[in-house]
Prior knowledge:
By secondary structure, this protein is of the alpha/beta class. It has helices at residues 18-32, 67-84, 94-106, 124-130, 144-161, 184-193, 215-226, 246-258, 274-279, 296-303, 316-319, 334-345, 349-366, 369-387, and strands spanning 6-10, 36-41, 55-59, 88-91, 110-115, 138-141, 164-167, 201-206, 234-239, 265-268, 283-286, 308-311, 327-329. The chain has two domains: 6-171 and 368-387, Rossmann fold (3-Layer(aba) Sandwich), CATH 3.40.50.2000; 179-366, Rossmann fold. Strands 3-2-1-4-5-6-7 form a seven-stranded parallel beta sheet, sandwiched between helices. A six-stranded parallel beta sheet has the order 10-9-8-11-12-13, with helices on both faces. The chain starts with 5 loop residues before the first strand and ends with a helix.
Amino acid sequence: MKKKIKVLQVIPKLGYGGAETGCYDLAHFLPEQGWKSYIVTSGGGLLRYIDKKKVKIFKLPVQSKNVILILFNTIILFFIILFYNIDIVHARSRAPAWSCYFAARLSFRKFVTTFHGTYNFNNKIKKFYNSIMVKSDLVIAGSNFIFSHINENYHEHFLKNKRKLLVIFRGINTNYFNPQKIRPIKIEKFAKENKIDRNKFIILMPGRLTFWKGQKIFIESIKLLSEKNDIPPFETIILGGDQGRNVYKKQLEVLVSQHRLGKIIKFIDHCNEMPVAYGIANLVCSCSIEPEAFGRVSVEAQSMQLPIIASDIGGSKETIIAGKTGYLFKNKDPNSLADSIVMVMQKDYNSLKSVGFEGRKNVLKRFDVDKMCQTTFTEYKKLVKLSK
């Protein structure tokens, strides 16, 4: 009987972010290939959706940077690896990567890491702490932007140790983010609950409320738009929770009040089904003032066949084919963003439909979750083959 390969993924928390959904998707993909799947995490909202018949879950404080807890996690992971005869240990963040590294090396198992973002290198301690992510047998970068970041900071490490570094783009569930799959009644309900006038041009800006996501730039651009007379009536939605950043949300609300934009800009904390939020929009904006490692909003918008305008930095430059599947504006420049929004508003129906069609085609070809899972699976097989 052929041995079932066993993969243990370790992630700090299984929430709703890009790294977490990638872990979730891969965990459910592997059993379909005849492999066994395990996850170690501290908790998180996605846990309730895990198919326990396919994926075994262990709860450990792997989100902690505390040295004692890292040591504790190492010991428990070591015994999990031995007891369940794990073949591959895959760490998806720095804190658990330290425990995974020692446990995998002590048990002579293959070790994989994924960079889901970029890390700063302000001092030698930071660089040493981050370096655990390149001590694996396989280092995965979630975008070309991240790949360049790793190469720039650890080029000598890869030359010396001959470790493998490659790009596997994050994927999204294009079946879930599909405009044809949304029930109109859900869109109507969302509009009614949030008092959104669907007769107006709706601009959506999704993303958690944090300074670098660029909500202030967005608000400044909306102020400029509100002074124009040659555009259709419009409303805007800033969709995202403050995650405890109450001060920043208050700053945004004050800015909206100062510019007298209360009737144009709505703050919505959460939407249980993001495709519904996209379904109400005519245009999506991503205004990050620091580079997005991947640009998930840009990919989701394209999958939903919506025009997307994003900052011309980081991962968004990779995910958008400028002028064909979306548009880029000059980073931190509200005038450039406002001009781009006006340009989209003034396009005819067929032009926008073409952008939407090309956007979904782009995502299906490059950023579908099945492609991400299949590519990772192929690399896993190479690792297992090498260890024989």
